[in-house]
Design goal:
The strands form 3 sheets. The protein has a 6-stranded mixed sheet with strand order 2-1-5-6-10-9, with helices on both faces. It is an alpha/beta fold. It is built from 8 helices and 10 strands. The radius of gyration is 21 Å and the shape is globular.
Length: 250
């Protein structure tokens, strides 16, 4: 009887070990990951998540769903960062695709973010003329470590003035409208994403996922970015100049 119980326990242990190895994203001992500047010799287990920094994603009615949740997928397990959603009033907002999204903060009570991201979408057409939005972005940008955008979110950052004299890109399908929001930005018509100082702007919609992984590489290293992409079964376009939707002649 005791021998039978012992055999069952051993079998359960073996099954549990196999399950964790097949799904490393959910196990505690996944493939090694090293943060930039960390130890490089030997193997390291996945860092324990202890988020002390915030990535604030500023959303509004009719934001583009993939602009937000592509980067969320890539940033969601970073060991040092917590993702929070922010809207003007703190009330839920609805994406262009009808997804109602809860938020953690309003413009009035949001703490300072280390990283801020502004998505695109149809709602940017009104947000470029929303003084509350523009003022909030200016205030946050003063102390961010990184200020980022996806798609026509760059138009909102441009209208806020935070991209003045910076190189930036935006959705190529909406390029004339987006770039008309500021003549002080050095708009790039051929770029999947652009990095200029602490400012990282991407082209349209799916390009935000590539940009998010590029930022992971800067925060940590290439191996971590590749591992996250692989875990999502995503083929990362890691060349910012590989822009299939570039403006002709650029």
């Amino acid at each position: 009887m005791y021998r039978f119980k012992f055999s069952l326990a051993i079998a359960a242990l073996i099954v549990g070990t196999a399950s964790a190895s097949e799904h490393p994203a959910f196990g505690q001992q996944a493939a090694p990951i090293a943060a930039k500047g960390g130890a490089s010799s030997g193997q390291m287990t996945r860092p324990v998540r202890n988020p002390t920094k915030r990535i604030g994603i500023v959303i509004f009615d009719r934001y583009e769903t993939l602009d937000v949740f592509g980067p969320v997928q890539m940033w969601g397990r970073l060991p040092d960062y917590q993702i929070v959603m922010i809207s003007q009033t703190g009330a839920p907002v609805t994406s262009s695709q009808g997804v109602s999204t809860n938020v953690a903060y309003s413009f009035a009570n949001a703490p300072q973010m280390e990283i801020i991201m502004v998505p695109g979408g149809g709602g940017t057409r009104s947000e470029v003329n929303n003084p509350a939005m523009l003022d909030f972005l200016r205030r946050q940008d003063r102390w961010t470590e990184w200020t980022t955008s996806v798609c026509t979110g760059a138009a909102v950052l441009a209208k806020a003035g935070v991209l003045d004299a910076r190189r930036a890109t935006t959705n190529k399908r909406a390029y004339p409208w987006a770039t008309s929001q500021s003549a002080k930005v050095q708009w790039q018509g051929r770029a999947r994403w652009v990095v200029d100082g602490k400012y990282v702007t991407s082209s349209g919609v799916s390009a935000g996922t590539d940009m998010a992984l590029a930022l992971v590489e800067k925060l940590y290293d290439r191996k971590m970015a590749e591992r996250i992409a692989d875990g999502a079964e995503y083929t990362w376009n890691h060349d910012p100049q590989n822009d299939p939707f570039a403006i002709a002649g650029q």
